[in-house]
Fold:
Amino acid sequence: MFESWPALPDDDRGAAGPHEGPRTGPAQLIGRAAEMGRITAALTAARAGRGGAIFVTGEPGVGKTRLAAEALAAAAAAGMATARGRASAVGSPVPYRPLVEALFLLARTGLLPGPDALGHHGPVLARLLGDDRDPAAAASHVMVGETVLRLLGSVGEGRGCLLVLDDLHDADAGTLAVLEYLLDNIGQQPAALLLVAGRACGAAAELAARARQRGAATALGLGPLDHPEVRLLVAAELGVTPGAVCPELLRRAVAGSAGIPFVVKELARDLAGRAGRHGRRGPGAPPVPAGVKDTVRRQAAGLGPLGAELLGTAALFGRRFPLPVLERALGRDHGELSAVLRAAVASYLITPDGPGTQWYAFRYRLAAEALLDDLGPGERAGYARRAVRALTALHPGLPGAWCAPAARLYEHAGDAREAVRLYGEAARREMDEGAVERALELLTRAHRLVEPGTTSPEAHATLLERLLDAVACSGRLDRVPAQTGPDEEGGEGDGGGGGDECGAARHLPARRRAGLHARLSEIATLRGRPARARAHLDTARRLLDGHPSEAHTPVVDLAAAHVELSRVAPDRLATAAALARRAVDGAQRARLPDVAGRALLLLGRLERDQDEPAAVAHFSRARAIALAGHLPVLRVRAETELATVAASHDDRPTRVERARREALRMGLLPLAHEAGLVLALDRIRRCAFEEARDLIDDAAADAARLGLGRTLAALRLAEAVRCAHQGRRPEMREALERLTPLLDAEPTARALSYGLARAFCSLLEERHDAARQEFAQALAHDAENPAAGDFGRHGVILLLGVLDGRMGRRHLAAAARASAGGTRWNHQFAGLAQAVLLGREGRPEEATAVAGKALEAAGLYPMARRLCLRLVARAAFEDGWGEPVDWLREAEEYFHGAGLRAAAGACRALLRGMGASVRQRRTGTEQVPPGLRRCGVTAREFEVARLVAVRTSNKDIAARLHISPRTVEKHVANLLRKTGHPNRTAFAGSAHDLTP
Structure:
């Protein structure tokens, strides 16, 4: 909600801060590892007698003082002497204050040598520590500097010394003169200087610049924390692990703090104190932490009455404000305001925004919020009326981006009707530019201002329609207005949403309410709640009965097509396609280009697997509509679909990646996650499993946060596929268990889970009978509820069917007619199926040529290629085509390296059967439990033991492990002898924990 925060005073106790709030352990330094490395190196050099100096600079609140504290702790831990002093602008000036404070600290700890130890410099030290109001009166700055230098050398002798001087931007001239002397002469002393100062222009900044130029000191400029570091800091403040940080709280911290550690802490503590760890504000909770608000109030007060008036008016605009409008509103020219502006910039309240002096911005949005909170209602309205008069005078008609700030000013002035109108117009302009998130924010603001009598029913309906459209394409389901129905989409329950009790929308015409319920139906589908989606659709249809509307019927038909896809029925795809076609026709008649385009995209998806040219025509037509109507959201959707089709053939996902980035930029989160899912599956097929995991995990976390149940179901399935393609059955089962509660959101996931995950894993485990049953189960689910995605029907299922003799030319031709059969992924399986048939027909040369092309297509898919080689090698050997021995050796090498022992063993057994030499693999003893290993059980005997434990017959064990029954008998006899069991039944009874 609040995207920026104000600067804080230079009492920046750092990235971890004092021990307050939920955190009770020691302070943790976040995001400063590189800086601490530089400081540690300087400390090491000082202990070796090579002194040096480091300036630490940064804006207020960035953690300069906290870094200095960490340096002091590191020096103390290394046995070094340490001292610290701080300059201050409070009270009467004290000459050499930071140096004197450091000397007193050394005296209290017993480290300060007596005056006699410093010879003729002793009296200077005595005057520094005495009551002399002006110790420099009897000693020059050079003499004071030499005295401090000798003292540091004495204190640091044999162990090193660290002197930290903080807040040097408030230091007196004498202190800075002494420091200049120390900087030039510290190199031969066993001491390090850590000098902390702000970035504001002044004598300290000039001293630091001169020292850097002549090589007398280095500089560490501290910047804001990045996103992962903010997460770590919030976790530290809340006393939880980083993964347990509430995403909403983290989003607010990142957007609101600009990475300034002090501000992150204040926000985290404030939110945690108000709402536990769920990041929810209570009713009436102030939006700005009290400490931050007090700081902004003091900074503004320091600018005088004109400064307070300037900043109060500027805050009405939000974070950014146009200076020419403020000048006109205040009746002041630029010259009169320049001094105030410079002072506000110097205090880190505001900063120039862009070239020139036309625009400024608050350093953090919370500064504006704090200033607004301090304005009384009458004062705020008065400022707003003056500002809006100035704005409309300077920009008649409010062209371009001026509509939104004008709406905000009318809102502050109390003119809700005009504010609603302008917010709606501003949102339309933002949507035309593809700024969906910004449009959603503006529409949400407008809706909150709507009250009975302030907005006409038609205008209110239009506002709600556009708001719901923005919610659907952005995925921000939390922005669904609470008044759109009982137990609405914004709630947590699954109860009776869909009834025509539309709260504040109840007074709208029936046809407009029908359109609203159609949109709510699509949002419920996104959420993965098909029952609620059907309820809203039924309401929409009932409202249209007797009130036919050319403008709203296509919207209802499109919603009905989406709802149809959540049904479990053999004809659901055909019914959905018919509804989508009807929506296209109706939308064209009603001149609703966005609805027509979205219906075309759905139609293309439904036809892509069977009739790709028709699907591409639909996608291209939708793109043409988008370009003609300047509809950027529709354009990106169409381009994503076209990129996905292209990637399935050329396997160059660059276009999909580009589409995903653009979707993220525009705030189209569901579309971005769909594109990310395509990329994740591509990475899985290429065996880039870690990249796929990162894509899936990030998208799944976001989908769960947003409540996108349908998207989350697809991502859970993708995770199961990722595990299955590595032969990791336990992890696959766990992923499928997480998918189970979401199956209603994506009914086709049942077929896909069998074909893409379970069966593939079984093939890698050499459980071919199980794989056949699982593929059959996928086909059965598809017959009951046809899937709009390929689960292997035109690829691996076809190859297995040909190898088994269950499928032939007719099935191959049917697969070739289906567009899904022409993808590069399926080409490897279908091509090898054709080669097997050619080999059986006595055409070995043709079979070899076809197999070569198929394996060329398989080059991008390391695991699938080797699986294909293992599957077809026997047929190739028996029918005399291809290079089966070389193929099996390649496959065995890959499977062994991938830890797929069963598949590697199958390849070795097939090689032995072909009379080829087999490389011996003696690894795997680490898999044998310690108890059996002590009995002398080998890795192969352990494989047999696991099957004996589940009472598998010798014949089945031989088939599973690709060895002879006689060899199995020998292994079983060795097992019984080594473990002391009389028979295999006794062994199985005591080895239940070996069950695979």
Notes: Residues 798 and 811 are 7 Å apart (CA to CA).
